Amino acid sequence: MGWKEAAEPVLTRMPTVARPEGHVPFKRKLLWTASVLMVYFFLTNIQLFGLGGQGSDIFGQFRSIIAGGQGSVLQVGIGPIVTASIVLQLLGGANLLGLDTENDPRDQILYQGLQKFLVVVMTALTAAPMVFSGGFLPANQALGQSLGVGTFGVQLIIFAQVFVGGILILFLDEIVSKWGVGSGVGLFIIAGVSQQLIGGILSWQGLGTTTGILASWYGILFGDLSLGPTFTGQWFQSILFDPGSILALFTTLLIFVIVVYAESVRVEIPLSHTRVRGARGRFPVKLIYASVLPMILVRALQANIQFVGQILYSQLGNGLPAILGQYSDGQPIGGLFYYLAPIQSRQDWMWFLGLTPGGIDPWQIGIRVGIDLIFMIVGGAIFAIFWVETTGMGPEATAEQIQDSGMQIPGFRRNPQVVEKVMERYIPQVTVIGGALVGLLAVMANMLGTIGNVSGTGLLLTVSITYKLYEEIAEEQLMEMHPMMRQMFGNE
Amino acid sequence: MASSGNSGGLMSSAGLVRYFDSEDRNAIRIDPKTVMAFCVLFGVFVQVLTLTVA
């Protein structure tokens, strides 16, 4: 038991947000959630002090799931939290940590501390290359001279701000988790994606951003925008893609429908109460059992690979071996990093419409799509399994929960091992199928494009988090109205 | 419906970070209002710095 004792003094002393004492009224919870959201938006609008230009966003298209904002105090967004979570999932899923977070309070404290410690480390590791490599957060050299600290001094100041911003995101998340509804991470993702989605629907040219679908159709109907000669190839293309965006509208709606439908697809295991005869219940094993959350981990893995590529390119320039990556305008167009980059939009693969950059052959695009599909489907399934194991939704943990609540599966012996056997017939299979399905859906949505160019993963996450949030709010209200329910749900 | 009597067993939506009920007595506890106040002050501070110095 080496590392636990060694790390204990540090991990148990990590600063935490105090827990509420007793019950927090639902209105108060909403208030906390809303205030955190406002503070979050406020901070994304604060530009870093000492920047000498805009710089290019290192996260690129991943920004919608990383949250935060390029050049703002919240530059790293939830990136470090996600990366730390990946590390913990892999370690915990493979049972390398040796922590029993289900039963042992001591181990729970250690797990919490380790989690926080990893996020702090990851924040520094993410922020440092962004600041010190140059192109992403360029330091203001004139400012360095006038302050007498040089460019490196300004970079240090920028680093400090980005680092503090990253830590603040962690604490804001903790506030929402403990005092509010849902979680901060989920909240920040839906905030960003919804903002983009609303922009993609409502925005007009006068705002200086891209034209939304409503404004486009107003233009089409009143003759300001031309689609080309009716019923020709060009006409269909303009209707489907820009400016008509019918395909994007279709994909967006499809994702909404599929996610909401899939939330209700479940295998129900009948339960009966051991003592109260006639009291029956059901344990639902949902198709998206592990939810789409593991997807964010797969995407973040891809984002981190691209992150390494960007850093290497910014350091080596064209000295980067062509087999690793060739870049043009900051985007990979060849080599390993090209093939590992996920398909983000139609521009990445619709070679037959001449959308892809020149010099990329269809077979190269095919390989890239194939790799992306394999990555997302296999990765989705693997992370879903780890997720189920580490969050206490696996066969063993659920069997114990059912046992503790005094329920049993009718026709089976009242014994956790027996219940576990039954659970093992359903949970792993459903998890793998659900994870792979969500992966496939995310890639498909990215390929067809969505309204406001929110990524497929972003949209999937947003719809499912919102759905979960809705369920949680409904449950909260139920508990508000019937205080007895609080005891039943074990929240008091 | 089976209710989870396990402490911290109820998973909230998109909780990538897990928080359990158990806490160490040594841990430094911060009031959430302090965090919020710090966030706002930090934002204002950086903004004022940008406006005055640069």
UniProtKB/TrEMBL annotation, chain A:
GO terms for cellular component: endomembrane system; plasma membrane. This is Protein translocase subunit SecY. Component of the Sec protein translocase complex. Heterotrimer consisting of alpha (SecY), beta (SecG) and gamma (SecE) subunits. The heterotrimers can form oligomers, although 1 heterotrimer is thought to be able to translocate proteins. Interacts with the ribosome. May interact with SecDF, and other proteins may be involved. Belongs to the SecY/SEC61-alpha family. It comes from the Archaea. It is a multi-pass membrane protein. The chain crosses the membrane at residues 30-52, 73-97, 117-137, 149-170, 176-194, 240-262, 283-301, 365-388, 426-445. The central subunit of the protein translocation channel SecYEG. Consists of two halves formed by TMs 1-5 and 6-10. These two domains form a lateral gate at the front which open onto the bilayer between TMs 2 and 7, and are clamped together by SecE at the back. The channel is closed by both a pore ring composed of hydrophobic SecY resides and a short helix (helix 2A) on the extracellular side of the membrane which forms a plug. The plug probably moves laterally to allow the channel to open. The ring and the pore may move independently. Residues 39-71 form the Translocon Sec61/SecY plug domain. The lineage of its organism: Archaea, Methanobacteriati, Methanobacteriota, Stenosarchaea group, Halobacteria. InterPro entries: SecY, SecY/SEC61-alpha, SecY_CS, SecY_dom_sf, Translocon_Sec61/SecY_plug_dom. It is found in: Cell membrane; Endomembrane system; Membrane. Its main location: membrane. The gene is secY. GO terms for biological process: intracellular protein transmembrane transport; protein targeting. It holds the Pfam family Plug_translocon. Keywords: Cell membrane, Membrane, Protein transport, Translocation, Transmembrane, Transmembrane helix, Transport.
TrEMBL record, chain B:
Keywords: Cell membrane, Membrane, Protein transport, Translocation, Transmembrane, Transmembrane helix, Transport. GO terms for biological process: protein transport. It is found in: Cell membrane. It holds the Pfam family Sec61_beta. It is a single-pass membrane protein. The keyword Transferase does not apply. The chain crosses the membrane at residues 35-53. InterPro entries: Preprot_translocase_SecG (IPR023531), SecG/Sec61-beta/Sbh (IPR016482). Residues 1-31 are cytoplasmic. Its main location: membrane. GO terms for cellular component: plasma membrane. Belongs to the SEC61-beta family. This is Preprotein translocase subunit SecG. It comes from Halonotius pteroides.
